[in-house]
């Protein structure tokens, strides 16, 4: 009897899911992205800077003289924006082997072409540090070109999914994340659904060239940002929707706590000149994501259903593309939430970089940057 009830229940769930999956593109009803109180739906008025023949500008950086932005794109290049008249030019790359790297979006070639995710300039030297998902931590000189690898393993374990970094120029160290020891970038959704907890947060000492693991067991270690006074460093844990704070100095040095909990899946985090932080959410956390992450039976069911990866991504992100950016104070309070609730212009954003009264907005999936005037 119980078995029959379970079977009935499971078939009902499967049928419901199948219907939800096959119907409208405009949102999946109860699975739709949740509302955030006080958020402002202002991103539909953002401008866009198209990437010609490229896609997925995950991270954004300006060089020490304020030129750029520079972005890392899906085909493995780092591009530089030189304004309306000159457009985009190639700046750097992480793989010397680029004959096959001609399509804007080809995840199956990422391990050959490279996938530059996190970008940061060293302000003194003008060198560009790159966290490449497949090739570890690299550095390109101020003139760009082929980046050279700095480190590809820590404490005997090779990086599998290097993701983001920040530089402490005074201490001469680089903080960076290796998202998972098991899943690679193109398997990011599987890493989240399986609640993979093999992510690491690592410190690279530039003079000794030694990499030390500071935190391990992280559930999708992602964006990294040092505080303005360098007393702590933030590490995004995407799957748990949390930002962790590791104290570097003061009475709590060496300990960690939760800096912020967010209403969605955070990607990169960037500090503005006031010392506040902008966090880009890949998507808000709706019912489908909640059920998948808390109910094992639901996740197992979902992974067994004949759903294509793009469909699964769509369900997980609420069926309706959207964009959400959260500004946090230096102590982790939410100061502002800016959105494109219906994805009219921006979708699946990965980073928000504030510069001179503008927000430059990246995305792992879109073929353009967003620019929003504050
Ligand atoms: C960017 O590309 C889109 C789609 O191809 C086009 O409609 C739009 O006009 C372009 N925008 C700019 C600013 O070039």
Automatic annotation (TrEMBL):
Q: Where in the cell is it found?
A: Vacuole
Q: What domain of life is recorded for the organism?
A: Eukaryota
Question: Which N-terminal residues, if any, form the signal peptide?
Answer: 1-18
| Name of the molecule in the record | Strictosidine synthase conserved region domain-containing protein
Which Pfam families does the UniProt record give?
SSL_N (PF20067), Str_synth (PF03088)
From which organism does this entry originate? Capsella rubella
Q: Species lineage, top-down?
A: Eukaryota, Viridiplantae, Streptophyta, Embryophyta, Tracheophyta
MF terms from GO for this chain are:
hydrolase activity
> What is the protein's major site of localization?
other
């Amino acid at each position: 009897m119980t078995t029959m009830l379970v079977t009935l229940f499971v078939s009902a769930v499967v049928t419901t899911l199948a219907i939800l999956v096959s119907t409208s593109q405009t949102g999946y009803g109860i699975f739709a992205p949740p509302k955030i109180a006080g958020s402002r739906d202002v991103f539909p008025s953002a401008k866009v800077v198209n990437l010609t023949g490229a896609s997925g500008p995950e991270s954004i950086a300006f060089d020490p003289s304020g030129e750029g932005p520079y972005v890392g794109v899906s085909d493995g290049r780092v591009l530089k924006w030189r304004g309306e008249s000159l457009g985009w030019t190639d700046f750097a790359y992480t793989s010397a082997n680029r004959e096959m790297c001609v399509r804007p979006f080809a995840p199956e070639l990422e391990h050959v072409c490279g996938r530059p995710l996190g970008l940061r300039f060293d302000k003194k030297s003008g060198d560009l540090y790159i966290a490449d998902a497949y090739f570890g931590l690299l550095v390109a000189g101020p003139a760009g070109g082929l980046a050279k690898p700095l480190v590809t393993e820590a404490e005997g374990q090779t990086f599998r999914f290097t993701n983001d970094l920040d530089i402490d120029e005074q201490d001469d160290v680089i903080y960076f994340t290796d998202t998972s020891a098991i899943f690679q970038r193109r398997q990011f959704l599987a890493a989240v659904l399986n609640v993979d907890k093999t992510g690491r947060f690592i410190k690279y000492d530039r003079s000794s060239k030694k990499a030390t693991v500071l935190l391990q067991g992280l559930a999708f270690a992602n964006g990294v940002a040092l505080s303005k006074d360098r007393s702590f460093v933030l590490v995004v844990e995407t799957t748990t929707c949390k930002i962790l704070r590791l104290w570097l100095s003061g009475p709590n040095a060496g300990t960690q706590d939760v800096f912020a909990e967010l209403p969605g899946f955070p990607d990169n985090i960037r500090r503005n000149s006031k010392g506040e932080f902008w966090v880009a959410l890949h998507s808000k956390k709706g019912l489908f994501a909640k059920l998948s992450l808390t109910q094992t039976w639901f996740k197992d069911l979902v992974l067994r259903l004949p759903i294509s990866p793009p469909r699964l991504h769509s369900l997980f992100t609420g069926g309706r593309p959207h964009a959400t950016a959260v500004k946090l104070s230096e102590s982790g309070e939410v100061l502002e939430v800016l959105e494109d609730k219906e994805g009219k212009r921006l979708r699946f954003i990965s980073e928000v970089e504030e510069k001179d009264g503008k927000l430059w907005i990246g995305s792992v999936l879109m073929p353009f940057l967003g620019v929003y005037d504050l």
